[in-house]
Amino acid sequence: MFSTITQPLEWFRGRDVTVMGLGLFGGGKGVTEFLVKHGANVTVTDKRTREVLAPSIQELEHLPIRWVLEGHREEDFTRADLVIPNPAVPRNAPLLELARGRGVPLDTEMNLFFKYCPGKICAVTGANGKTTTTSLVGAMAKNEWPSARLGGNLGHSLLPAVEEIRPDDWVVLELSSFQLEDLSVLERRPEVSLVTNLSPNHLDRHGTYSAYCEAKREILKPGPFPNVAVLNGEDPLVRSWGRGSRRAIYFGRSAGVDPRADGAWIREAHAGKAGEVVLCSRGSSTRLFEASKLSLVGKFNVLNAAGAAAAAWAMDVSPGNIARAIEEFRAVEHRLEPVVEIDGVEYLNDSIATTPESTIAALEALGPNAVVICGGSSKGCSFRALGQTMARRARGVVLLGQTAQSIRESIPARAGGPEVRLAATIEDAVAQAREIARPGDRVILSPACPSFDMFINFVERGRKFKEIARRMARSGSGGS
Questions:
Q1: Are 434 and 443 in contact (CB under 8 A)?
Q2: 420: closest CA among 377, 375, 385?
Q3: Is 375 exposed, middle or buried (0-12, 13-18, 19+ CB in 10 A)?
Q4: Where does the chain hold its CATH 3.40.1190.10 domain(s)?
Q5: Both ends of the chain: CA-CA distance in Å?
Q6: Under CATH, domain 111-328 is a member of which superfamily?
Q7: Which position among 86, 269, 271, 332 has the lowest Cβ density within 10 Å, counted as fewest Cβ atoms?
Q8: Where in the chain is the domain with CATH 3.90.190.20?
Q9: Contact, 441 vs 369, CB < 8 A?
Q10: CB 147 within 8 A of CB 169
Q11: Domain 337-474 in CATH: superfamily?
């Protein structure tokens, strides 16, 4: 569907290019800046209003852009020299089909980056843990090479500065299934590719779990240069993908087996010894760091750190710089982010949790003295396992959004189970969670769903939660 041609950068000068979907999480901003920089006549078109898109428009208002808002016009697709859709735009959208039928080439922000980036790429994908793992790899790489860059689906586009990247520079990217599906038309693949795990996600877009997995597997397809696959050794499907790779290394829990396959493995705490992550290579083991040095909560984050360490090792980051990054790293916003304490109850923002598996991991790490705020719009995922985990690991559950009733029905009725309530708004949800919580508990916003029914994105949702919690703390309730 997308162009395989790499035009010289001079080609863009004077061309009419339509960017479809500006977005509010960087989806169209970077490519727009890139196009204007190289002399294109850019039209940005979006169905949303100027008021809704104001944060993104303000960052681009200094550029000579033609805005078409509150709808799309056919002529912007049929008369363009190039059309670039936002990753969130369905690839079977009628206007994209119309453009293609008229012979107008299509491309994407990430495909353009892969075409023009002269540096080496380490990319991270998976169902859960992508952003934390990518950020950890980036921190490790920057310790080794200050020129290393971090971007991709994190919300920061590197495309506008692609010409500043040198051939020896490393770039660390988070890639979504949408971006990888588009990347299938190109030969280039990352020099190092990390897959954190797999579970059903974005079925509303991909249709089936099999199609979703195949989109993720694109990251491992052989490219023109040697590449390394870094795979979760505890996920049977992900581990099986190593058989088709030129070189595969793994990460996971060693369960006392030493040495394991090449990679980074977690030795669990035993006999008074702290748990640690070790590097296994060619039959020998090297200690990388103690798990206790990682400030992030949850065993799943130790697994994320092990994956990041394996990828960094594949990039030739030294063990010392891997360990230093672990000690210095702090929680990424919206990922089990501590917010405030009120009357002995800790409030945490886990708004990035848009899958049931993410919320399950949060509850396993922080329950059973947890009150979870959950719910949002549907991606077609089952809530059965989430309901069972809530029954075991939550004191209370406050549900809101389109999926509230579905999640409620998934929680088994049992004596001593969590108190379950429904809320109309996020303000109401936080107030009800506060009523349920006791000193020593944690209130966690961990929705298990995207936020499109009530918020623009997970960022707006998380920041609203933090604003409410902090306002409650300031009201004289004894918080800090």
A1: yes
A2: 375
A3: buried
A4: 111-328
A5: 53
A6: Mur-like, catalytic domain (3.40.1190.10)
A7: 271
A8: 337-474
A9: yes
A10: yes
A11: Mur ligase, C-terminal domain (3.90.190.20)
Reduced to 3 states (helix: H, G, I; strand: E, B; else coil), residue 168 is coil
H or E, element range at 409: helix 404-410
Judge contact between 16 and 43, C-beta under 8 A: yes
The amino acid that residue 123 corresponds to is A
- Taking the C-alpha atoms of residue 85 and residue 91, their distance in angstroms, rounded to an integer, is 8
| pLDDT tens column, 24-79 | 666 689 999 999 999 999 999 999 889 888 888 999 999 999 999 999 999 999 99
Span 9-107: which CATH code? 3.40.50.720
For 461-476, write each residue's pLDDT tens digit: 999 999 999 999 988 5
Nearest one of 140, 156, 443, 177 to 321, comparing CA atoms: 140
Single out the residue of 289, 324, 287 nearest to residue 141, CA to CA: 324
Structure tokens at 380: 């077609």
Bridge-based pairing state of the strands 345-349 and 442-445: parallel
324-336 burial, b at 16+ Cβ within 10 Å, e below that, comes to bbbeebebbebbb
According to CATH, where is 3.40.50.720 located in the chain?
9-107
| Separation between Cα atoms, residue 321 and residue 361, nearest integer Å | 28
Ranges of the chain with pLDDT below 70 = 24-27, 255-259, 270-274, 476-480
- Paired with 420 in beta bridges are 397
Alpha-helix residue ranges (DSSP H) falling in 128-246: 130-144, 177-183, 203-206, 209-217, 236-240
Q: How far apart are CA 27 and CA 47, in angstroms?
A: 14
C-alpha distances in angstroms, 62 versus 36, 48, 65, 472? 11, 20, 9, 38
Cis peptide before 226 (omega within 30 of 0): no
Q: Phi/psi at 17 (nearest 5 deg)?
A: -120, 130
Q: If residue 346 lies in a helix (H) or strand (E), which one and from where to where?
A: strand 345-349
